[in-house]
Amino acid sequence: MVMLEKTGRVVVSTVAVLFIVVSLFGIAGVWWVDRLATGIALKAFSIVEAAAGVINAGVARMDGLIATSRAEVRQAAETITAVGERAEANSPVLNALSERLETSLAPRIGQLQQALAPVRDAVGTIGNAISVANSLPLVADRAPRLAALDETFNRLEQVSADTTQLRATLRALAAAQQSQVVAETVAALTGLTQRIDTRLGEVQAGVQEVQADIAAYQLRLEARKSRLLFLFNLLALLVTLMFAWILYSQLVVIRHYRPAPVVAMSSGHGDTVSFAPSAEAATRASWKIAPLPTTRADLRFTEAFTFEEFERIRRGVIPREMEDKWFVFYEDPWLFFHRSWTGFAIYGVRFQVSDSGASAVESWVSRDSNQYQETRTDEDRARLKRLIDARLLGNRTANDGVA
Predict the structure, then answer these.
(1) Cβ contact 357:307 at 8 Å
(2) Among 104-118, 134-148, 216-230, which is the least confidently predicted range?
(3) Could you tell me which residue, 180 or 306, shows the higher pLDDT?
(4) Model confidence over 360-379: pLDDT tens digits?
(5) pLDDT tens-digit profile of 101-113?
């Protein structure tokens, strides 16, 4: 029986140690995973933020180019309107206007196309990131519309073609000889400038719409980023608490089943007797108790116990339920019996260890009437014997006779 108990303790303790090791690795692992997931999320968010920065820079550059181009087109329209009826006399002015459009407006249209290209790529990057993020419930969102930028590219192509036609028509106007032809050409030039200005305005509005869409997405992204990182940390904390609870519970198990330390006591004959107390032994600190009564009577309790029985006696009793009405603890060499509800001390027994076991050599019973009403010493002696048999030695046939 003893060997089986020792084997059970070893098995339980080994399993508890394994759980402790797993819990420690689990705590370290969960925060490593949290750090890894946070790093991946921040990297993904940084890609989107960098793309948004490219869009903002590109749109700002396009706004400046479009504003300058529209001002130049309007100025060209005013010049055409002013000198168109006298084209032959003002052919040098029209030639200069054509050259300026060729050297200024046309390259600027090309710069707009160059500025729009990285904006479109950045919008595509954000769209791809959103497509991947849509698989996660907390960061799903609507991807920005690339179709609007494709329309903007098409309008820029049309603006480039209109600019080429405008330059060619200006040269034709400067070389015109008949007033009738001049009037038709002036009308065509006016229409071209208006169309170029309108399309440039549409390009600007389309790009600004995309920028507003990205700005709104950035605000939503920031909120989702905070929510996602909070969720990562919350999950890591909850898992850590779970592992911490497992760790604590296994420490309790190990403490409960650890082998009892060997304690040496004097036998009273100059010899030293060693035995192992239980790991569950009650101590004075295990329960709230009152001081020992000052009014006591000699109980004359004399009983002898084997070492095995004395080991059980020394464990004492710690109340676990409301029905457990006695708290018993051993404090070398005395064994004290307290009522669990009031903490009052009722009995005290002093033991002396010998070669054959341990014997009760001194005992007392409380006679404080405010704490204990029994006055019959014989009855107390019998009750103490039943208490030891039933509560400490585990004799189920014994009846402690105490309510």
Answers:
(1) yes
(2) 134-148
(3) 306
(4) 999 999 999 999 999 999 99
(5) 777 777 877 787 7
**Has residue 398 got a pLDDT over 60?**
no
Q: What is the mean pLDDT of residues 188-209?
A: 81
CA nearest neighbour of 193 among 211, 175, 169, 166: 166
Closest to 315 in 3D by CA, of 348, 278, 350, 289: 278
- 12 near 253, Cβ under 8 Å? yes
- Decide: residue 44, CB within 10 A, 0-12 exposed, 13-18 middle, 19+ buried: middle
Based on its alpha-carbon atoms, the radius of gyration of the chain, rounded to whole angstroms, reads 48
CB 246 within 8 A of CB 27: no
In angstroms, rounded to a whole number, what is the distance separating the alpha carbons of residues 290 and 258? 31
Tokens 């239980």 belong to 278
Cα separation values, 144 from 35, 259, 352, Å: 30, 68, 89
Structure tokens belonging to residue 205? 């509005």
pLDDT at 325 exceeding the cut of 80 = yes
Q: Over the range 159-192, which residues count as b (16 or more CB within 10 Å of their CB) and which as e?
A: bbebbeebbebbbbbbebeeeeebeebbebbeeb
Question: Are the C-beta atoms of 318 and 286 separated by less than 8 Å?
Answer: yes
Q: Is the dihedral of CA 250, 253, 259, 263 positive or negative?
A: positive
Measured CA to CA, the distance from residue 87 to residue 89 in angstroms comes to 5
